[in-house]
């Protein structure tokens, strides 16, 4: 089959994914599976090879990231329910000073965004955000944008969030290395959102209408968990995973032995995050059925659909790998010399078109996977930077077809025009600055 025809097949599959998920609101898993069948049949693959490709892609992706997403979701739910998220935010507020509400919310969003999905984190932090805005006489256009972009930075760049975790599984990347680079590279994006909000968002006067004051909010939770115990379920798993990944780098000082074996075991993501789950559960005073079944069951329900969609993306990506599409596109696009900007542009286009950052990152990872070698990104830090570039593209832009857009607008009393002016533009600036940071780092690592 000719190269141009392969390109037509790929473009039609992308159009199909966008139209069915954005316009007809079909579940992304079913859309990705149908796209996998369609590409395989259109490329003339034998039916048994198509079926094996779909099953192999689904299974290998689920094996790589399924447990990680479930455990990460459990940690987030428990930290939300126990008030640990508020405890961390309250500690940050006390450290930076109650007169620095904007800085406090930016830092809180970045930290709380590590375990909590961005929309959940925004809902949980919204009462505090409103109370601080009202006390500091700061427009909600400013405070909402700061909180939303800081949450978004870690949501799109760092596991165990579903988008980057899916990219890790599809591209076969070391998750620890993604965390090692993703957390610091999320900072420029969060800072971009902060400065955009404080410089541009202040033009729009949106008074805060909190349901309770800051002191009343703290009273509703009663005694909050101790700060160090609130941070521990996040920090310890990250340190363990990062430490294990560092032992794979050239020149690491650890010699083979029991200590290295123990670190490799404890730093395995599914083990490290399981430790995080039980550290989070230690914040609960009574392990009732509501906690052990209700809270954890809610986490399973939230994570289940995400992992299924992610595995569907793995099926689609595997079909692309076993067709000539990947090799053709890789050899063609490599001549353009855009490297890391290709996954960024693809993810941004898909995000703008259909709204979901997770679907955009999954689909882009599936498209990029068979091209990695031709693009010169298959070795060293190339796969890690590809995951991050895809996540940066997934930030651009949050508008009306994105559920997060409506969460931010609704919980901050922003009308739609104002939400477009601050949330949509803020995420655009955030994504561009994040990609700029990734590109600068790539100059030293690639």
Strand and helix map with partners:
Elements: H1 3-23, H2 28-42, H3 47-82, H4 84-96, H5 101-112, H6 118-136, H7 140-157, H8 162-171, H9 175-199, H10 214-221, H11 227-246, H12 258-266, H13 269-281, H14 289-322, H15 325-333, H16 341-354, H17 357-368, H18 372-375, H19 382-393, H20 403-411, H21 416-445
Please report the distance between the alpha carbons of the first and last residues: 34 Å
* Number of strand segments: 0
- The helix-strand sequence is HHHHHHHHHHHHHHHHHHHHH
**Number of separate domains:** 1
What radius of gyration results from the CA coordinates? 22 Å
- Proportion of β residues? under 5%
Helix content: over 70%
How would you classify the helix and strand content by structural class?
mainly alpha
> How many alpha or pi helices?
21
**Biggest pleated-sheet summary:** none
| Overall mean confidence score, pLDDT | 89
The 3D shape can be described as: globular
Low-confidence stretches: none
Structure summarized in a few sentences:
The protein has 446 residues and is mainly α. Helices cover 77% and strands 0% of the residues.
Structure description:
With 446 residues, the protein is mainly alpha-helical. It has one domain. The chain contains 21 helices and no strands. The longest helix has 36 residues, at 47-82. The radius of gyration is 22 Å and the shape is globular. The two termini are 34 Å apart.
What descriptive keywords fit this protein?
446 residues; mainly alpha; 21 helices
């Amino acid at each position: 089959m000719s190269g141009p025809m392969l390109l037509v097949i790929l473009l039609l599959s992308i159009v199909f994914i966008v139209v069915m998920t954005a316009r007809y609101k079909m579940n992304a898993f079913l859309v990705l599976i149908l796209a996998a069948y369609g590409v395989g049949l259109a490329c003339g693959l034998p039916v048994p090879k198509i079926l094996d490709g779909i099953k192999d892609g689904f299974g290998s992706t689920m094996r790589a990231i399924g447990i990680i997403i479930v455990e990460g979701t459990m940690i987030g739910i428990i930290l939300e329910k126990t008030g640990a998220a508020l405890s961390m935010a309250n500690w940050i507020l006390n450290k930076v000073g109650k007169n620095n509400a904007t800085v406090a919310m930016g830092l809180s969003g970045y930290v709380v965004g590590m375990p909590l999905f961005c929309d959940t984190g925004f809902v949980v932090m919204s009462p505090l955000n409103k109370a601080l805005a009202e006390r500091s006489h700061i427009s909600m256009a400013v405070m909402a944008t700061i909180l939303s972009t800081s949450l978004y930075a870690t949501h799109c760049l760092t596991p165990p969030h579903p988008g980057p975790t899916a990219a890790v599984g599809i591209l076969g990347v070391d998750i620890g290395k993604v965390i090692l680079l993703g957390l610091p590279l999320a900072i420029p994006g969060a800072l971009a959102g902060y400065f955009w909000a404080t410089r541009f968002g202040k033009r729009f006067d949106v008074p805060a209408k909190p349901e309770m004051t800051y002191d009343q909010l703290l009273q509703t939770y009663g005694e909050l968990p101790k700060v160090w115990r609130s941070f521990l379920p996040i920090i310890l798993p990250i340190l363990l995973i990062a430490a294990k990944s560092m032992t794979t780098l050239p020149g690491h000082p650890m010699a083979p032995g029991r200590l290295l074996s123990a670190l490799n075991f404890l730093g395995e993501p599914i083990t490290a995050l399981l430790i995080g789950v039980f550290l989070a559960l230690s914040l609960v005073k009574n392990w009732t059925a509501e906690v052990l079944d209700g809270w954890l069951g809610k986490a399973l329900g939230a994570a289940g659909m995400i992992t299924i969609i992610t595995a569907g993306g793995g099926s689609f990506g595997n079909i692309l790998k076993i067709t000539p599409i990947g090799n053709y596109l890789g050899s063609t696009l490599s001549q353009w010399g855009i490297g890391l900007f290709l996954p960024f542009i693809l993810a941004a286009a898909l995000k703008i078109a259909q709204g979901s950052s997770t679907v955009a990152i999954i689909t882009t990872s599936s498209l990029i996977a068979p091209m990695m070698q031709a693009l010169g990104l298959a070795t060293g830090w190339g796969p890690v930077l590809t995951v991050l570039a895809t996540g940066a593209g997934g930030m651009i832009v949050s508008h009306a077809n994105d559920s997060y857009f409506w969460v931010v607008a609704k919980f901050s009393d922003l009308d739609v025009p104002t939400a477009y002016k601050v949330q949509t533009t803020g995420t655009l600036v955030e994504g561009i600055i994040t990609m700029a940071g990734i590109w600068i780092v790539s100059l030293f690592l690639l």
